[in-house]
Amino acid sequence: MRLEIPHTLGKDEVRRRISARMAGAEAKAGAIIGGPLSLDLVWIDQDNLSVKASAMGYTVPAALEITETALVFDVTIPSGLGFARGMIQSMIRERGEKLIG
Fold this sequence. Notes:
alpha+beta
């Protein structure tokens, strides 16, 4: 699944906002899903972040790319979570908008 969240902030400002909010991301994401969650965030380079969210026996890998005009999320939904695709998409869009808002 690919999601684009447009912005007008420029790469540097988006990168700064993401970095500033990474520390509490795991706790916030766990609160949203209502249970324990493990979040692995690794910068591949200055514009690409690798994300692995693990909860309830599932791991959802994703990549986040920062472009001049959008945050681009590429998310791999495991087959067992196909029923939750819409919920996952809504959550990513909402959290992504708050992340840069």
